[in-house]
Amino acid sequence: MGYLEKKDAIILLEDGTIFHGKAVGKGGTSTGEICFNTGTTGYQEIFTDPSYFGQIMVTTNAHIGNYGVTSVDEESDSVKIAGLICKNFSEVFSREAAQGDLLSYLEKKDLVILSDVDTRALVSYIRDNGAQNAIISTEIDDLDGLKRQLATVPSMKGLELSSQVSCKEPYFYGDENSNIRISALDLGIKKNILRNLASRGAYIKVFPFDSTYEQMKSFNPDGYFLSNGPGDPEPLTQAVLTAKDILNAEDPLFGICLGHQVIALANGISTFKMHNGHRGINHPVMNVETGKGEITSQNHGFAISREDTENNSDISITHYHLNDNTVAGIKHNSKPCFSVQYHPEAGPGPNDATYLFDQFINLINSTKEVTI
Ligand SMILES: NC(=O)CC[C@H](N)C(=O)O
């Protein structure tokens, strides 16, 4: 597909604002919450991250596609974003490790891709006016039809999406002879989390998003993990119950992003939809316990209430976001439980926070020593 064949396309926002672009590939129509990621690398990891399910992704990096794709950069088994908006889409790539080009990869999913968009203006607009739904389309002559279709798209607030991306049946990951066993709740788990746990000697059983504590306990695990995932944490009632049961049993528990939000809800801390989320690979976080900063990978549109957290005597804030002071990490004061809003597994992003996986394994080992 050459440059001259690109069809005109539009981005229609929920508030009626229109941006223009060109379709890369065959075009079409897609809907979802529009959000932006400021990462300069890592597009394949972003596009396959289940946490982005249902979202139209605007990339702020000037070029997308220029280093191709490889199977090792996949965070799940398929493309999860609902659409892609970029400035320049490169149909050619140069990278020795690449196994193919991004366009063919995305076309397998019939993804609607727009390029030649003034992404700087679009991102500034979303940043000022807040997260909202959008429709992207090459059907530019049917604006009323697009408006009607957009009006039927549910708001991200209140939306349960883990059921759309979670495994349907439990599966295993890692070496079954490992001496640490972890039961992980798959709310939309990224592969790099499993890689990080397995590389530290864990054998993991991954359970569907609505699994109970009893089901997860049947694996006889040494610790429990609640994963990242898409959508609003509030409707995840079974996951919150499961987290409460894990807490009541005082079993080791670690949560990342959506899992962190579920742990907060299980402790009576409310969550809220942010004006705009944090999505990028250079988000600065303060580690309260060490007094040191961490540069972190982030991808969330909801956050936990700082006020509720500060008023909860069972919970301490361990990390906060240095840009806006939002809560970035918590721990339970008397139970073996901690969680972070950001992504220590990176995929993509910096590795400043991988120590959190070591902390989880150490927590499990210390609990094991006590029980032996
Ligand atoms: N990466 C995640 O787990 C995201 C959590 C949640 N869907 C949010 O947007 O806040």
From TrEMBL:
Its EC number is 6.3.5.5. GO terms for biological process: 'de novo' pyrimidine nucleobase biosynthetic process; 'de novo' UMP biosynthetic process; glutamine metabolic process; L-arginine biosynthetic process. Composed of two chains; the small (or glutamine) chain promotes the hydrolysis of glutamine to ammonia, which is used by the large (or ammonia) chain to synthesize carbamoyl phosphate. Tetramer of heterodimers (alpha,beta)4. It catalyses: hydrogencarbonate + L-glutamine + 2 ATP + H2O = carbamoyl phosphate + L-glutamate + 2 ADP + phosphate + 2 H(+); L-glutamine + H2O = L-glutamate + NH4(+). It is an enzyme of class 6 (ligase). It comes from the Bacteria. This is Carbamoyl phosphate synthase small chain. Pathway: Pyrimidine metabolism; UMP biosynthesis via de novo pathway; (S)-dihydroorotate from bicarbonate: step 1/3; Amino-acid biosynthesis; L-arginine biosynthesis; carbamoyl phosphate from bicarbonate: step 1/1. Belongs to the CarA family. Transmembrane segments: none annotated. Pfam families: CPSase_sm_chain (PF00988), GATase (PF00117). It comes from Nonlabens xylanidelens. Residues 1-180 are annotated as: CPSase. Residues 7-137 form the Carbamoyl-phosphate synthase small subunit N-terminal domain. Keywords: Amino-acid biosynthesis, Arginine biosynthesis, ATP-binding, Glutamine amidotransferase, Ligase, Nucleotide-binding, Pyrimidine biosynthesis. PANTHER family: CARBAMOYL-PHOSPHATE SYNTHASE SMALL CHAIN, MULTIFUNCTIONAL TRYPTOPHAN BIOSYNTHESIS PROTEIN-RELATED. L-glutamine binds at residues 51, 229, 231, 258, 261, 299, 301-302. Small subunit of the glutamine-dependent carbamoyl phosphate synthetase (CPSase). CPSase catalyzes the formation of carbamoyl phosphate from the ammonia moiety of glutamine, carbonate, and phosphate donated by ATP, constituting the first step of 2 biosynthetic pathways, one leading to arginine and/or urea and the other to pyrimidine nucleotides. The small subunit (glutamine amidotransferase) binds and cleaves glutamine to supply the large subunit with the substrate ammonia. GO terms for molecular function: ATP binding; carbamoyl-phosphate synthase (glutamine-hydrolyzing) activity; glutaminase activity. The active site is at residues 257, 343, 345.
